[in-house]
Amino acid sequence: MKDVVITYCKPCGYLKHAQAAAEAINEKLGVGARLVPGKGGIFQIAVDGQVVAKRTSAGFPKEDDVVAALQEALS
Predict the structure, then answer these.
(1) Does position 74 have pLDDT exceeding 90, yes or no?
(2) Closest-CA residue to 1 (of 32, 39, 40)
(3) How buried is residue 75: exposed, middle or buried, by Cβ count under 10 Å (0-12/13-18/19+)?
(4) Measured between alpha carbons, how far is residue 4 from residues 22, 25, 36 in Å?
(5) Mind listing the UniProt keywords for this protein, alphabetically (predicted)?
(6) What domains does the chain contain, in order, with CATH numbers?
């Protein structure tokens, strides 16, 4: 099974975004994601160490984009 990890900036208050992404991944793909606290503004979702979605200057990745990226990475 592939390792899905959501790394989020704890001091920035990104936990709620990480939890929402993990819930969407679980509901739509049936895959559990590990939440890992970080710092420095990080918010990224990785599969087996490869980043498939991340926060950019435009904001957080949309739920549908995260699910689509994970579907591709998991196939």
Answers:
(1) no
(2) 32
(3) exposed
(4) 9, 9, 11
(5) Redox-active center
(6) 4-74 (3.40.30.10)
